[in-house]
Write a structure and sequence with these properties.
With about 220 residues, this protein is an alpha+beta fold. Helices cover about 40% and strands about 20% of the residues.
Length: about 220
């Protein structure tokens, strides 16, 4: 058996596997997106029962196999309980994790996407900014991290000056200050229209959690 490996990360998704196991997808700083099997995680006395659920963030101890990892231990520092206990926030959070899983790759540095996801989930329970603004900012920044966002959009003269300023800010601000602004309804409408356009243009799949959000709105 290989040596145990400790990775910093978050559980993006988890599904039952076999009678008592779980198959989880982790976004990790060190290895990017990885798939791991948590044996016995669905048993009530398992120390991985809570740690193998979506939103769990911390240090995970895994063993590397030929095609997947085995999760054996977890030290969770944040379960994002405030997000999970609010239905709307939980739907947004699930969508953000779906997007993170969509953009992430195995064996690539996942630190930037992990930091973005963590900061975004922390912003959700707050009264400001609005969750839809958080959605657009997250989508824009995730697209940028994947090298797909057209920077020249921030200089588009057909857009309002405030919209251009907001776009430029999102593309350049430190992640810890990414959700420190709000927009007027008029500016946000244009801001959201720009991001929705690029979603249609560059994202080639649908997301279940986003469909739920749209039905709610």
């Amino acid at each position: 058996m290989s040596e145990p490996l400790k990775v910093n990360g978050m559980v993006l998704s988890a599904v039952p596997f076999g009678d008592y196991d779980k198959r989880v997808v982790l976004l990790t700083k060190e290895r990017g997106k990885i798939t791991a099997f948590a044996h016995g995680a669905r048993r009530q006395n398992s120390m991985l029962l809570a740690a193998s659920n979506p939103f769990a963030f911390g240090v995970f101890t895994v063993y590397e196999g030929r095609s997947a990892y085995t999760l054996v231990r977890a030290e969770i520092s944040n379960y994002f309980t405030e997000v999970k206990e609010n239905f709307e926030a939980a739907c947004y959070g699930c969508y953000f994790m779906e997007v993170a899983e969509y953009y992430s790759r195995e064996n690539l540095d996942g630190s930037a996407m992990l930091n973005l996801l963590y900061a975004t989930l922390r912003a959700l329970p707050k009264e400001q900014p609005d969750n839809e603004l958080i959605r657009c900012v997250f989508e824009m920044r995730a697209m940028m991290l994947n090298g797909e966002y057209p920077y020249e959009t921030a200089n588009d003269a057909s857009l309002q000056e405030s919209t251009r300023y907001a776009l430029a800010y999102v593309l350049s601000a430190p992640v810890q200050k990414l959700y420190s602004f709000t927009l007027t309804p008029e500016v946000f409408a244009e801001f959201r229209s720009v991001q929705d356009h690029f979603n249609r243009l560059r994202v080639d799949r649908s997301f279940k959690s986003l469909d739920i959000l749209k039905s709610m709105m």
